[in-house]
Design a protein that fits this description.
570 residues, 12-stranded antiparallel sheet, 6-stranded antiparallel sheet, 2 helices
Length: 570
């Protein structure tokens, strides 16, 4: 083998080991022993590497999970997801109040001079007062009241509450200008009714009627309508029920008779019938405590991440993550809502770790919430755990992040709050997690370059490789670089624990670098490539800069010293 062949072999070693660069072809080879073993001591190879930008390491490959975003005028990497919030209905069951069954009242009025026929004589008798008449009881029963309703203070009805009182006397006494009427009636009706009818006292339920004439069929009819009911502190819901009780009937009155050519009985029997209609409640004022079902948002998938994030050793604490949620409050006209956002990190090993925000408030019809950041026009909500949503010790990044809005509650006093289906809580969200690392964060990037094996290279025995250089970087975090040899069977060649490592501090300028690679088990043989490993880690709690594509490392004034020998059979 001649000297030129040896030089070509050595150049191949150095070029392969450091992958790229410009090689100075002026070598001092006077120390080579031209025997079957060619010893190489302190061979100096000057190299110049181009600067390595983060964008050359972070290959997005149109990855939908990682995007370049602009933060304060600076381009940064971020996990960005947005989508719609699945609608969740807001509904309170309607309330139907049935018609109570009421017994009639029967009473008699004694007529002085009655029982005597006086043809052609008009009888205009003084008003005859009623005797005492027992009242009848009623119940407005409300069953299976929605559990969200705690107290009804007053209600408005979808259909009128109708009350009818019918007073009946024997037929044949009225007609042909004969007149019989009930005067100065004082009736007890249900209390709390909302009506425009005069003579009704809402608090007591008493109604005064000056005169109620009897028709030719012997009946005097009172028709009364109401559009609502004031429950006056008696509307608390107990075990899903509300019972409103009271009395109805005639408390006092007089009978006025003006007849001619009629034989009046000495005792006039009178019957009073009462009718209360059924009704449905359309809206209420009172107290509500409504718990809405959780709102589920489609999980944020983190599958198919770039290589530099997909190592099981990757551990990220996002520096300044944020979630912006825009929520429609279907009852915002009447009531504020509260809730919490829950993020659940789902890891490949089956572990689940949940993080919860502070309680937020939904005011008005539409609310924009900003979690763990401040945004103009948005309501800021503290969410300290958001910084840890991508971190779970040694398990790497989660495969997905579940997003749920839970503990959604609408409670308080309301006015004219409608019953039934009131719409749905819905909206949109944006999850934005810039890859700027907080204290304790670490990212592992690994790649293997191989295929170097050849008959010539198999005869090269490398004892030690020394590297010195100056390193500059604008990375805001420390970087630890290492190189591990790979043999032609794809196995890593074990090197000394402190071999092939150097650490570059954050934002270093012309930092001296010393790198040494030495096998544990003697000379490095059958070299087929190297495994390159870069560990980017953060150990400063104050530094939370985002990582962007322009972050770079550059090495210059590189000198590589190789110790070893080339051995072959001639």
């Amino acid at each position: 083998m001649n000297r030129q062949t040896l030089v070509n072999g050595l150049l191949s070693i150095t070029a392969i080991s450091f992958m790229t660069g410009c090689v100075d072809d002026k070598y001092d080879l006077t120390d080579i022993d031209t025997t079957s073993r060619f010893t190489v001591d302190n061979l100096t190879v000057p190299l110049q590497l181009s600067e390595i930008k983060l964008e050359n390491v972070v290959s997005l490959d149109d990855n939908e999970n990682i995007q370049k975003v602009n933060i304060d005028g600076k381009e940064c990497y971020a996990i960005v997801k947005d989508g719609r919030i699945n609608p969740t209905e807001f509904s309170i069951g309607s309330i139907h109040v049935g018609s109570p069954i009421l017994n009639p009242s029967l009473f008699s009025v004694a007529i002085v001079g009655g029982g005597v026929e006086v043809p052609g004589v008009e009888l205009d008798l003084p008003a005859i007062p009623f005797p005492e008449i027992p009242l009848q009881s009623y119940n407005f029963d409300m069953h299976d009241v929605d559990k969200a309703l705690k107290e009804l203070k007053n209600v408005k009805t979808a259909n009128p509450i109708k009350i009818e009182v019918v007073l009946t006397i024997p037929q044949g006494l009225v007609g042909n200008n004969n007149k019989i009427a009930f005067q100065n009636l004082k009736l007890q009706l249900p209390w709390g009714l909302s009506t425009n009818q005069s003579g009704y006292d809402k608090e007591s339920g008493k109604l005064t009627i000056a005169e109620l004439p009897v028709d030719a069929d012997g009946k005097a009819r009172l028709l009364f309508e109401a559009t609502g009911l004031d429950l006056d502190g008696k509307g608390k819901v107990v075990d899903g029920n509300i019972g409103i009780a009271g009395n109805i009937g005639i408390e006092a009155g007089e009978l006025k008779i003006n007849v001619k050519d009629v034989t009046l009985p000495s005792v006039l029997d009178i019957r009073a019938d009462y009718y209360l209609s059924e009704f449905d409640i359309a809206s209420f004022s009172g107290t509500i405590d409504y718990n809405m079902d959780a709102i589920h948002i489609d999980p944020i998938s983190l599958s198919n991440l770039p290589d530099f994030l997909d190592s099981p050793e990757t551990n990220i604490i996002i520096a300044n993550p944020q979630i912006i949620v825009d929520i429609i409050n279907p009852v915002g006209e009447w009531l504020d809502g509260k809730g919490r956002i829950i993020l659940t990190s789902n890891f490949k090993n089956g572990d689940k770790v949940s993080h919860s925000s502070d309680v937020f408030t939904l005011r008005g019809h539409e609310t924009e919430l900003a979690f763990c950041t401040e945004k103009n026009g948005a309501t800021f909500v503290q969410f300290d755990g958001l910084r840890n949503v991508l971190s779970n010790g040694d398990h790497g990044l989660p495969s997905s992040i579940g997003v749920d809005i839970e503990d959604i509650n609408f409670s308080g006093d309301v006015t004219d709050f409608p019953l039934g289906d009131l719409g749905s809580a819905q909206g949109s969200y944006e999850f934005n997690a810039p890859l700027g690392f907080g204290a304790g964060s670490m990212v592992i990037y690994e790649t293997t370059v191989d295929g170097w094996s050849s008959d010539t290279l198999d005869d090269v025995n490398i004892n030690k490789i020394h590297l010195t250089a100056n390193c500059s970087t604008n990375l805001p975090v420390s970087v630890q670089l290492s190189v591990t040899p790979i043999d032609k069977n794809g196995r890593e060649i074990e090197v000394r624990e402190d071999s092939g490592l150097f650490e570059v501090p954050a934002k270093a300028q012309n930092q001296p670098v010393i790198l040494s690679i030495e096998s544990v088990n003697g000379p490095i043989k059958n070299l087929n490539g190297v495994k390159f490993r870069a560990v980017v880690f953060q150990n400063s709690p104050d530094n939370q800069d985002a990582l962007g594509p322009d972050l770079k490392i550059s090495l210059d004034q590189i000198r590589v010293n190789v110790d070893g020998y080339y051995e072959t059979d001639f």
